[in-house]
Every structure is written in structure tokens, then in C-alpha cells.
Amino acid sequence: MSNVAIRINSVAKEYQVFTRPLDLAIEVLTRRARHTTFRALDGVSFEVQRGEVLGIIGPNGAGKSTLLKIITGVLEATSGSVEVSGRVSAILELGLGFHPEYSGRENIYLSGLLYGMNKGEIDRKIDGIIAFSGLGDFINRPVKTYSSGMHARLAFSIATAVDPEILIIDEALATGDAGFVQKSLRRIRQLCSGGRTVLLVSHGTALLAQLCNRVVWLDQGRVRMVGPSMQVVQAYDLAAHQSSDEESWIETVDDALDKEKSNQPHLATAESSSSGVDGSIVEKVAAAPRQKALEPRKLFESNQSGEDRSVGQQIFRRGPVFIDSVELINSAGERTTRLKFYEHALLRIKYRVDGPLPESSLGVAISINNRLDLSSVAQFYTQNIRPFETRESYDSAPDRRKPARRGTIDLHFDYVPFRKGEYLLSIGLLPNEPATWEFYEYRHFYYPFFVEDAGMDLGAPVFLDLSLVHRPMENETPEANEGVSGSPSATMPSLDGGVTDRSAPEAAAPEYRLATLRSEIEAICFREGGYPKTWPRHEACPACDQVALAPAFSKYSFTHAQCSACGFVTVDPYPPDDIIAKLYDGAYYTQVRNLFEAPLLLGCGDATPFSAPKETLMAVIDRATRGRASGTWLDVGGGLGAFANLIAEARPSWTVKLNEFNKKSVDIARNAFNDRFTISTADLANLRASGELFDVISSVAVLEHIPKPKEFLQGYASVLKPDGMLVTVVPHFSELNAKVSRASSANVVPPYHVSLFNERGLRRLLGRVEGLEIVAIDQAGPSAFIPVHLVDYGDYYDITVPTEEDPQPRSIAVRSYSTEESNAINALSQAEKDSNDYFAERDGRQLLIAYCKKKGSS
């Protein structure tokens, strides 16, 4: 079979259907047919190459599961042939062979044997299966006590532990809770990128576009289309829209973002009607040929240059509102398909109404997807009730206006927030009615465009922050212009980024709930804070103060600079005090502490919210209190008080004080630890004014957040007793990290980590603090440099802001890895396990712990 792993040749499957059970007996006795024949599959043919990931899509009843069962030998075909070359593992039904009375561990062996593994193979894999399932102690309980989600977790973990040459998966991805679904998807991506031949059935079109080389579209037992994944996915999605609305049709339209005229066949225009052409617009539309059956077409090509290739694509139409043209306009006022990051842009949609004007206001929905894998980047829509609205105020919103006979909808980007790359723009017009998605017209994955990074890089937010002006054409009826005050230009933001005065109260910009850490940082630092124009810059290195800083790299568009003398790296320009205050009082920082860290701390589980491993902190306590039976200890920026509590427990004769400034953290610490230590919210000036001095002052994972670390240390050294100990624990941004991994290092989290220390830079910094003498700088933890940093994986993820419904901060993949990246990450992750000690010897460990003594007599 050479490179063919699976060959399907004219496969058909028929079932005998009896109206009544009695008819089967009558047919057997009389030998006269009492049944009808149902063809679940009707002449299906295609091939799957070795190493190919092939998707299968289609509506319920299309024959997908029947086909997979024939391929795996569960069913026999009525006619045709199936040739399979290689060991096959199929996930057709989760929970194959589970016995309800057996424990989860016992069912791993039972189910694993049914999947074709031997006992030795299961023995080797069982720990990994249990760990992946996340069932913990439940693994030793009977399966009959499991919830449906726990049952699915265990079943999926077993099924994907098999190591086949050919993997067949039938809708097994939506298992368990939201966290486990993401975990399952990562496992499927790993399996697909490992060189296996994979057959994947799913209703998730975007998932198939990401994972599959090609997709087969089955419909009523026949192959309707086979081709590149994105082409088939677009055709299938449009057909799904069209099949749900008998009045709709699929039509081919030529349009492009940067062309002066668009060619739209079959549809009359308002100009032709007004120029004396016989017949009304409605009659012309009704008489136009409507394409009820969607035919396969070439949709678009890979397009590194950004040139528009959208000629001749198919769209969904129902009317009576139609899109005439779509324009993308850059900050220079030019139509384009290429935008630049952080520059103003305008998306303009020109429409017309052919027939009676709809009663509902006209809504717009857009989505932007990554061109490479169709991952969703952003969306914006007007029809649903938004968090800042009520049902009573819905119709009075300034961006909801009734359609005119002809009009323009402008969507303004105050800045282009998308990172460098290729994107696909989808646009739909629909009535503004909550919870409806019945489009007048929908152009799915229609417009490709390209974003240049303008020398910077940034990930995209999930939800676009736009202002919208609905501007009917001049000389229209008063009804069409109802609710629009002043001339159109009076309410339009200018293309240079300025915005004219909007006096109407309802035009005030709404406050959207920020769903991710990155969106909050962008709001605080970029939109409100004015980065980089209004932020201060360092005149010299904040650590050694010897030389000026030189640009080193950029991450999330924050520029990092490095000192050539000591190697210290910092965010430059750095956040001013008001921005720092907003960041630490923001939703992400507050919610992480309140909803994620606090339950861990109060629950006293194995996972605790220490900023360093417990054994490292115990070593700090031992060294700092050596030779002292009692004393006073101030822990600065100690968050929820976990370290302060550890000190109080380990040294009960010492007086411990937590110095913390975040109100939520202070409330949690007081609730968690009562009177085990005191809590101070005083700043340095008030601490000095009180006259209180301390034997030990510690800052654990604090100094990396301080843009002027020398001033910070000097201030706290002033409230240290003579011979007292100042202890500083910081992440180690090592020499190799600075030279090789750079922005991909886990320590680079701008604008939170503004100071990145190596040992040389930390030593220079501490040497400049008056009155301090360095006792030692130790290192702790695993290697500071890990090989996986070589792959810049950090830019592709964002972290959600915890909520009551989902208190765990989660990563959101905004683009999946290519096969090459996946293989590199897998290989380097394995190498990291084997080479940690080598790199720790070569380059140091993750934490730097500095001990300094206050000069003076005892």
C-alpha cells in the first residue's frame, strides 16, 4: 500500500428497516420482503496517507460513526472494500469495558487489555494514566461511585495512552469539566503532531481546521467534498447556515478590501433601479438564480504578501439587507489589506436594503481568526444585551440604529491590537435582537488581511474595543435618520486617532469586563497609561548606576533594556507609581489572591501559595535567625501572609510583622491567621516615623516588581537594627536566559517583572545600598535556564482573570503549534529532564537569595 495507511473504496452500508418487530418474523416465515432499505453509506471513497491527520465532518446521520466502525472492523460493509495498514486504536465509545464494581485502577487494566495493551505495557503507563485523569484517591474507589465527569476523565486517559500507528477518534473531545476539556485537547494535539495517522470526527470546525491536513465532508452517506481543511470548513459552515433557513441562499461574490469596485452578480443595485430600469429591486432579487446546493470552490490561497485573494468566494444571503462593499482603511486614509500594529484603522461596511425597511435596528457582527489555524482571535457584535446595559436601555444605545435605504457602518480601531501575522475577517449584518444569529448576509472567513508588527509584538485580546458610528446616506427619509444627531462627520473619530466631541450622554464609552490578564494590562498600560510616551526612562542602570541601558528585546510590546556592565535587565520605560498601583489593585491580581491562592492557603493542601518552595524558605529562616533566640522580623510585600505564618510557626519566640499594601491580601491574611503575627499597611515614611526597628527584614519575590530597586532596599535598610539581617529572594534571570531565551523566559512577565537579576547585577545593586554588607548570595531551586525556553512558546498564551464560576487562572491558546514547533518542544522538554543538573552547574538555579548585614556595633 506504499504511503497509503487507509484506503476506502466504494464502501456502502445498508440496513433493513422494519415498520414493526412482527414484520421481521413474517418475512422469515413467508420469505416475502416486509422491510425497506436504508443506505447509511453510499459509495464512499477516499485515501488517508501515512502520517496524515484527516478530519471527517457532517451533520448527525451523515454516516460518520458508521464509517469509522467499518474501518475498525466493528461493522461489516455491505459492499466495497477497506484496506488498513498499521496497528489501529479507536476511541469510539468512552468507557469501553468498564466494570462498575471494580475500582478505577482495576478498570485501567481491564480496559487497557481490551484496547490491545499487555499487562507489562499497562504497568509502565498506569501512573501517567492516573496523573492525567486527575482522580487522585478516587482511583481506588469503585467506578459506580464516579460522577459522569470522573468517568469520562478516566476513560479518555486510558484511551489516549495507547500507542498506535493509526488513531481513530469519534467525538471524544468534549469530556469532563472545562479544565479537563482543555487538557484533552492538548493531548489530542500531541497525538496528532507525533507522526501518527489520525482519523478525527468532530462537529468543531475550528478544531478540525487546526489539527487536520484535509477534511472529508459526509452528507447523507455520501462524500460531498474533500479538500484542504479550511476550504471544507468554510463550505460546511455556510451550508449549515443555509440549511437552517429556507429563504436563504448561497451566492458567489467578488469583493476585496482594497479594490475600488466590487463585482456582485445577480443582484440589482439602487443605482440601476433609480436610473429607469424596468422592474422593482424586490422583483429582480426574487428572479435572481439562488444557489441552493453548495458546490466546492477554491476559497483562498496562502498569502504571505497580504495580497487579497478573495475573488469568487461564496457567501450566505437572506436579505433584505445586503453588503455592497467592505473597506479596510489605514491611518493614512488609504484602502488596504495591510495594517500596522498600534496604528489607527477603520473598517467600513456599505450596505443597502432591497425591499421594505426592517423594523429592528441594524446590527453588525465581525470575527477575526488566525489565517494559519482558524483559531479565534477577536470578535465584536451589537445584537446581544451587553453587561453595562439593561433591556430597557437596549434600543437607545448609540450604535443601534434602524437601517436606511443605503448606509455605512464604520467600526473604528483606536489602535490595531493584533500581533504580526495573517488573519481572516468574517462579517455579518443581522437584526439587533438579543440572542439571534439570523443573518441578512454573512461572509464567512471572507477577507484576508495582514498585520505588520511595526517593530513590536503583541498578542490579540479576545474582545475588540471599538467605537461604532452608524451613518445613513444623505438625502434619505427622516425616518431613516431618526436618532442620529448632527452631521455624520461630527461624530466620527478622525483617522489620526483624535476623537471629536460627543456630547450625547448615551455615547459614553462602556466599561467592558476584562477577561484576561493581557487585556487588563493593555487597558491600564496602553489605553489609560499611555505607554510608552508618558512613562519615565532610566538615565543609567538602576542596579550598578555605571552605564546607560541598551535595548535588549521586547515582549508583549514592552521594551526591555540591559546593562552592559552588570547584565541587569529592566523594563524601560518603566511604569510610574500610579500605573503600578492600578496593576496591583486590578482584577487579575486581586482575584488570583481572593479566589485561587486563598482557598489553597486556607485548605492547607500540598499546593501552597508560597513565592518560593517551603524548603527554601525554611533555609532562609534558619540562616537569618542563627544565633538569635528571639527578635523582630518584618516581611515586606508578603501577600497573604504564608511566609510570615511559616516564620511564626518555626520561631514562636520571635515577633513577626507582615508589611503588605494590597487591601484584599491584608483582609485574607487577617482572616487566615488571626493573631499569629501583626499586619502593617504603613509605608516606609510611616515606618520610620514610628521609630520601630527590626532584627530581620525579608522580601521574597518582591524586588523584581520594583522599577527602582536601590531606593527600595535603601528605605528598608533604614529601619533595620545594627547587625540586623536584610534577606532578598528574587528569580534568577541568568546569563544564558539573557543571551538565549530572552523574552521566552518564564521570568519575563512585563510590566509586573520590571527588574530581572543575575548574580552579578544583584551583587552590584546591594553593594550600593549604604550601611549594608553582603554576607552571601546563595542559589536554590532547579536550573534557571531550561532548553524549552529556546522555543518562544510564551507569546501564544494568555491567562484568564479568575471568577467565582472559574476560580483557577487558565491559559488560553490563541494559536496552536506547527508540527515542527511541537516536535521541538517535546524534544526539548525531554532534554530538560535529563540536563537540569548540567545547566544548574553551568548557569545557576532559579532563585537568588541575598543575605546582607546592617553595619554597626551589637
Q: Can you put this structure into words, describing what you see?
A:
There is one protein chain. The chain is of the alpha/beta class. It folds into three domains: about 5-230, P-loop containing nucleotide triphosphate hydrolases (Rossmann fold), CATH 3.40.50; about 260-300 and about 310-490, abc- transporter (atp binding component) like domain (Coagulation Factor XIII, Chain A, domain 1, Distorted Sandwich); about 580-830 and about 845-855, Vaccinia Virus protein VP39 (Rossmann fold), CATH 3.40.50.150. Strands 10, 11, 13, 15, 16, 18 and 19 form a seven-stranded mixed beta sheet that branches. A seven-stranded mixed beta sheet has the order 26-25-24-27-28-33-30, sandwiched between helices. Belongs to the ABC transporter superfamily. InterPro entries: AAA+_ATPase, ABC_transporter-like_ATP-bd, ABC_transpr_TagH-like, Bact_Polysacc_Export_ATP-bd, P-loop_NTPase, SAM-dependent_MTases_sf, Wzt_C. One of its GO terms (molecular function) is ATP hydrolysis activity.
